[in-house]
Amino acid sequence: MAHFNPWHDVERGEDAPKVVNAIIEIPKGSKGKYELDKESGLLKLDRVLFSAVHYPAAYGFIPQTYCDDKDPLDILVLCSVDIVPMCLVDAKVIGVMQMIDQDEEDDKIIAVAANDVSVNHFNDIADLPPHMLLEMQRFFEDYKALEHKHVSVERFMGREDAYRIIEDSVKLYEETFPKGNPKDEEDVKEALS
After folding, report:
1. End-to-end CA distance of the chain
2. Angle 92-93-94 from CA coordinates, rounded to 5°
3. pLDDT, tens digit, for every residue of 105-144?
């Protein structure tokens, strides 16, 4: 049975890679790690964070993208209000945080909510207050420490690098899912294997 899946059925955005549609899975301040269940398209509680930390920004993914970790491309969206899970946000891309998670590259696009005047004046990651980047880095380096998993933030890079990473993930998505939304569970399993 065909069903709606936010990963495959939502456009990535008319102005991508500059402004993308971000689908939020986790609101800022959460200790719950929610993620899209790839087969059903519903939001699933993956786990409650072990450490005394919480997400420093709204966290989600860019639809119709795909990365080497077999997931859509991750995005952090800075906004002055809490964004509820499964909300679609116009996200202006300003940079990228490159990390290594369990020996795998794991890029996180950094963006600001395009329709929030308190943050949409930021045009590049260099414009952000240094403590914001430090907070993001500390969160991602610490949030798995009590699970004895190693995460290291390699570097922050500007928006041009972020655009290139988004374009690469779009290309990989189109190669992996040439017909768009896999219509049944077998198609999903085949594409993700």
Report:
1. 21
2. 115
3. 889 999 999 999 999 999 999 999 999 999 999 998 888 7
Residues linked to residue 60 through DSSP beta bridges, in sequence order: 24, 75
User: Is 106 labelled a binding residue?
Assistant: yes
Tokens of 189: 């399993």
82 appears as a binding residue in the annotation: no
* Domains in the chain, CATH or no CATH each: 17-177 (3.90.80.10)
Q: Does the annotation flag 74 for ligand binding?
A: yes
For 59-100, the pLDDT digits (tens) are 999 999 999 889 999 999 999 999 999 999 999 999 999 998
Residue 130 phi, psi dihedral angles, 5° rounding: -55, -35
Residue 17, preceding peptide bond in cis (omega within 30° of 0): yes
Using CA atoms, how far residue 182 sits from 88, 170, 173, in Å, is 21, 16, 12
164 among the known binding-site residues?
Answer: no
Token pair in block for residue 36? 């899209």
Nearest residue to 73 (alpha-carbon basis) of 133, 23, 5, 3: 23
Q: Is 69 annotated as a binding residue?
A: yes
9 phi/psi in degrees, rounded to 5: -100, -5
Confidence of residue 20 (pLDDT cuts 50, 70, 90): very high
- Is 173 a known ligand-binding residue? no
Taking residue 187's Cβ as centre, other Cβ atoms within 10 Å add up to 13
